[in-house]
Amino acid sequence: MNSALSKALRGNRHGIRNYLRRYWTLYLLLLLPMAYFFVFKYIPMAYCQIAFKKFSLVKSVWEMPWAANNGMEYFIKAFANRDFIYALKNTVMLNLLDLIAGFPAPIVLALVLNELRFKALKRLTQTVAYMPHFLSWVIIGGLALQLLADNTGLVNNALAGAGIKRVPFLSESAHWVATYVSLGIWQSIGWNTILYLAAITGINPELYEAAAIDGAGRLRRIWHVTLPGIRSTIVVLFILALGNILQSNFDRPYVLTNALVIGVSNVIATFVYTAGIRGLQFSMTTAVGLFQSVICVGFLFAADRLAKRFGERGVV
Fold first, then answer.
1. What's 174's domain CATH number?
2. Is 286 helix (H, G, I), strand (E, B) or coil?
3. pLDDT-above-90 percentage for the chain
4. pLDDT in the model for residue 309
5. Does residue 53 lie in a domain region?
6. Is the domain of 161 the same as that of 13?
7. Is the pLDDT of residue 242 over 90?
8. Residue 8 has pLDDT above 60, yes or no
9. Is 126 among the domain residues?
């Protein structure tokens, strides 16, 4: 029995040796991305300790003294800060609106493009739709200001010329939120549509032919063939979107905000910039960032578990 086991182990080692000899170049290619993640993603995690310590510019993170209340001093300060509470509420509100209005938009566009029979028009529409993805929010903010400003914007000047009341797109809270969400959809809809179109191309064409033979119209084929065929892609992207429910880009709200709408435009990212970089409250803003990340991971796992309960693979 011992001889058989030793032979099996030798055979296994021989197989691993042959495998590595054959595919060593692939593992060599992994070294660079692994080094990138280790240096720029994992090593900086040590500085999460700043959230629990009194920050000092002249001491390393290991030498900084622990904060009061068992290291929870800055978490307590953050939740006692009225600006942070407003920023938290605004972040959740804007991200939920992005999810509700923005998540279905690329799905609908992908379904429409898939049904177009004129390939030239389909390619033109797709190209025009995803080009805004390559524009930075600084450029988009400048365009929004030129087009939607109250007194000098092209759109409001056209409305005033037609005898219609000017619309405060960027200076009134409700209109600003609608503008914020609309610009987000416009910027991202084309790029996300590519993912769904790629998933649609993987659907077996025979399913459409069978549905047509059974008398299913275009809408029936979309409902019973196309949507079930891309359901797994929709679930994965929804999980990732839900995992970012507390995340917020800095550039998007920052370039669109102004003093008149600060009550709805101040999000966690801009709060961290204002209080942390400009206010030099590094420990408190690190605590805010750590809280934000932990909650997002919690949402990610919850959405993944819910998806698996409904028979989907999930992402974890």
1. 1.10.3720.10
2. helix
3. 41
4. 77
5. no
6. no
7. no
8. no
9. yes
Position 253 confidence tier, pLDDT thresholds 50, 70, 90: very high
The answer on 190 and 137 residing in a single domain is: yes
What mean pLDDT is predicted for residues 56-67? 88
Nearest to 245 by CA among 312, 313, 298: 298
Q: What is the pLDDT of residue 11?
A: 55
Between helix 119-130 and helix 104-115 the angle, nearest 10°, is: 160
**Are 30 and 145 found together in one domain?**
no
Give the count of beta carbons closer than 10 Å to the beta carbon of residue 268: 23
Expressed as residue numbers, the domain containing 19 is 2-42
Residue 225, CB half-sphere, CA atoms under 13 Å: how many? Answer: 24
Q: What is the pLDDT of residues 73-120, one digit of tens each?
A: 999 999 999 999 999 999 999 999 999 999 999 999 999 998 888 888
**Angle ∠(176,178,180) on CA atoms, nearest 5:** 65
10 shares its domain with 95:
no
73: its two tokens: 């001093």
- List phi, psi (to 5°) of 53: -130, 165
Rg (CA), the chain: 26
Both 38 and 78 in one domain: the answer is no
- Quick check: is 51 in a domain? no
What is the tally of structural domains in the chain? Answer: 2
Among residues 128, 131, 121, 126, the alpha carbon closest in space to that of 109 is found at 126
User: Distance of alpha carbon 244 from its chain centroid, rounded?
Assistant: 6
Picking from 196, 182, 187, the residue whose alpha carbon sits closest to that of residue 227 is: 196
In angstroms, the CA 152 to CA 144 distance is 11
288 and 181, same structural domain? yes
